[in-house]
Amino acid sequence: MAFDSFADFFAMGGYGFYVWLSYGLTFLALGILIVNSITKKNKILKNVEQRLAREQRIKKAKDMEGTL
């Protein structure tokens, strides 16, 4: 093992703050990206579903007009 103890591992030769801060910021950014992507995907799917339902209602209304 390159480090003598876990304290040395976390200290990273005096650069631990910067190393762990960069890991933290990276995982935070990835987490935000994942949440944002899932939220937008769900919003798009909901909009598509609403649009299809609207088109079906319009088609049904036109069919009803044709029978009158």
> Shape from CA axes?
rod-shaped
Count helical runs: 2
Which structural class do you get from the secondary structure elements? mainly alpha
Rounded mean pLDDT score: 92
Largest sheet: none
Order of helices and strands: HH
- Helix share, percent: over 70%
Distance between the termini: 85 Å
Spans of at least 5 consecutive residues whose pLDDT stays below 50 are none
Tell me the fraction of residues in β-strands, as a range.
under 5%
By DSSP, the count of extended strands is: 0
- Using only C-alpha atoms, the radius of gyration works out to 27 Å
Report on the architecture of this protein:
With about 70 residues, this protein is mainly α. The chain has a domain of about 30 residues. The protein is built from 2 helices and no strands. The longest helix is centred in the middle third of the chain and has 52 residues. The chain is rod-shaped and about 85 Å long. The model has no long low-confidence stretch (mean pLDDT about 90).
